[in-house]
Amino acid sequence: MDRVLLETIFTGLAPTILYDEPLAKHTTWRIGGPADVLLIPRTIDEVRAVVLAAKAHDLPLFVLGRGSNLLVKDGGMRGAVLKLGDEFAAIAVSDRTLSALAGRSIVSAAHIAIRHGLSGLEFATGIPGTVGGAVTMNAGAHGGEIKDVLKQATVITSDGTITELSADDLGFRYRHSIVPEQRLTVVQAEFALQPGDTKQLQEKVRAWSKRRQLTQPLSLPSCGSVFRNPPGHYAARLIEEAGLKGLRHGNAMISEVHANFIVNVGQASAADVLWLIRHAQETVQQRFGMTLEPEVRIVGEDETRR
Ligand SMILES: Cc1cc2nc3c(=O)[nH]c(=O)nc-3n(C[C@H](O)[C@H](O)[C@H](O)COP(=O)(O)OP(=O)(O)OC[C@H]3O[C@@H](n4cnc5c(N)ncnc54)[C@H](O)[C@@H]3O)c2cc1C
Ligand SMILES: NC(=O)C1=CN([C@@H]2O[C@H](COP(=O)(O)OP(=O)(O)OC[C@H]3O[C@@H](n4cnc5c(N)ncnc54)[C@H](OP(=O)(O)O)[C@@H]3O)[C@@H](O)[C@H]2O)C=CC1
Ligand SMILES: C=C(O[C@H]1[C@H](O)[C@@H](CO)O[C@H](OP(=O)(O)OP(=O)(O)OC[C@H]2O[C@@H](n3ccc(=O)[nH]c3=O)[C@H](O)[C@@H]2O)[C@@H]1NC(C)=O)C(=O)O
């Protein structure tokens, strides 16, 4: 996309504006082609200005969290990508409510809740995303989900309106909310928690963390689970039973530790990962008649279309 045009639209709207920024630097998979422009605003007013500028010029705008559930294709993303700046990390606990700006790590928010003797967010201590990403994905683990604890989220709509939405408004389902389809930007969230014993809560999360370290390939770049579990089944078990554990394509590999993780074992491309995703889907469909639906959000363009 024309750089001069982008500069005309966005200059001055955020303190950090990066052109042709490789998104591999911003995803946990360490994969992804360049964004035409990546904007990193510090304040809600700056976020709103970016949203309004994109709308006024009919430019696509994508909101990036920690990139821990994203596959950005090798051709990168056209239009603008917005990432909340480090200033979006404020957090406060009052009575039984924890509120955090959306750029805060959900892991750290969960630990702060525990330290305040509040229970409800423990499930999130192993989920390496932001508060905004966790709300968007209705992130969950160990039987808990964001939808169980979210009181309200403050969002900016695509026409720049700032509004508060309840858990019901957000249309939560398994690893799903209406945030992407409504093109909302989450800027803050409040969680309703219950009193709990800090020591007991810490023991609980320590045990979960040990289990995760044994069952998930945490030392290699990944996006967590690639596929949602089909109702009544486990994606990992289906992929393992199809004989695909350890299958490598280019520098991407179906993990030998956990079959629903694809790990980057070198400088993997998005095309390497997409090949494995499609191969797993086709093989599981043929062998078991089951459809594997990606949990990871696949965005951007193929290299050849640039
Ligand atoms: C090792 C590992 C373990 C994981 N374990 C789990 C797990 O147990 N459970 C689980 O649910 N997930 C897990 N994940 C996946 C991932 O961490 C979660 O989905 C997380 O919630 C994504 O947050 P993020 O900030 O990285 O969002 P991103 O990956 O950057 O984005 C995900 C989606 O959210 C949108 N988004 C992000 N921030 C905002 C915002 N502020 N406003 C509007 N939209 C936004 C993006 O546009 C995109 O659609 C794991 C990932 C890894 C790498
Ligand atoms: N980032 C990644 O790519 C990957 C992350 N993971 C896993 O995801 C989780 C999050 O990792 P990461 O992104 O590095 O972390 P974050 O930066 O999201 O969170 C780290 C913060 O969480 C708080 N915290 C973490 N552990 C504890 C604890 N035991 N007690 C008290 N506070 C704690 C601290 O916050 P504060 O200072 O505010 O108290 C710390 O600064 C970890 O379990 C990690 O193993 C796994 C694979 C990849
Ligand atoms: C990592 C994620 O979330 C994770 C979350 O951390 C864990 C813990 O609560 O439970 C889900 O994994 P999961 O269903 O694969 O959980 P696990 O307990 O590891 O495995 C489920 C079943 O599959 C079997 N299994 C697992 C791995 C494997 O290689 N082969 C296999 O057969 C296990 O034996 C077990 O019977 C979430 N994944 C999904 C898609 O729902 C994520 O969403 O990114």
From TrEMBL:
Record's keyword annotation contains Heme: no
SUPFAM superfamilies: FAD-binding/transporter-associated domain-like, Uridine diphospho-N-Acetylenolpyruvylglucosamine reductase, MurB, C-terminal domain
Start and end residues of each FAD-binding PCMH-type domain: 30-196
GO cellular component, one term: cytosol
Predominant subcellular localization, coarse grouping: cytoplasm
Enzyme Commission number: 1.3.1.98
Region forming the signal peptide: none
Name of the top EC class for this enzyme: oxidoreductase
CC cofactor: FAD
InterPro entries registered for this protein in UniProt: FAD-bd_PCMH, FAD-bd_PCMH-like_sf, FAD-bd_PCMH_sub1, FAD-bd_PCMH_sub2, MurB, MurB_C, MurB_C_sf, Oxid_FAD_bind_N
Purpose: Cell wall formation.
Entries under NCBIfam families matching the protein: murB (TIGR00179), PRK13905.1 (NF010480)
Protein name per UniProt: UDP-N-acetylenolpyruvoylglucosamine reductase
Organism, as annotated: Sulfoacidibacillus thermotolerans
Encoding gene per record: murB
